[in-house]
Amino acid sequence: MKTVTFTEFRKNASQVLDLVEKGETIRVLRHGKAIAKVVPAELRQAKPAWKRPGLRLAVSGASLTRAVLDERRSSP
User: Fold this and answer.
1) Taking the domain 1-41, which CATH number applies?
2) Is pLDDT above 90 for 33?
3) Pseudo-torsion of CA 62, 64, 65, 68, nearest 10°?
4) Cα(73)–Cα(27) distance, integer angstroms
């Protein structure tokens, strides 16, 4: 865990947050006392349901579509 003063954090917030983004935990001190701990956000590996592809029905044997089309062609 890296430690920075509040002044360093304020002046270099972008660089400190880059470290956090890479997985580093940062402790922020003010007047020598810890006032905050900046930790990386939890990573979500799973995609939201609306971004995942839909389920596909797979059935072995004859194709239902083919059977329907054949039935339509054979009807007068």
Assistant:
1) 3.40.1620.10
2) yes
3) 110
4) 74
C-alpha dihedral (12, 14, 16, 18), degrees to nearest 10: -150
Residue linked to tokens 């592809």: 53
Q: Which two tokens stand for residue 30?
A: 């003010």
Distance separating alpha carbons of residues 35 and 29, to the nearest angstrom: 6
Q: Which helix (H) or strand (E) holds 68?
A: helix 64-74
Asked whether the whole model's pTM tops 0.85, one would answer no
Q: What is the pLDDT of residue 44?
A: 64
**CB under 8 Å to 5, separation ≥6 — which residues?**
28, 29, 30
Domain extent listing, the chain: 1-41
List 5's β-bridge partners, or say none. Answer: 29
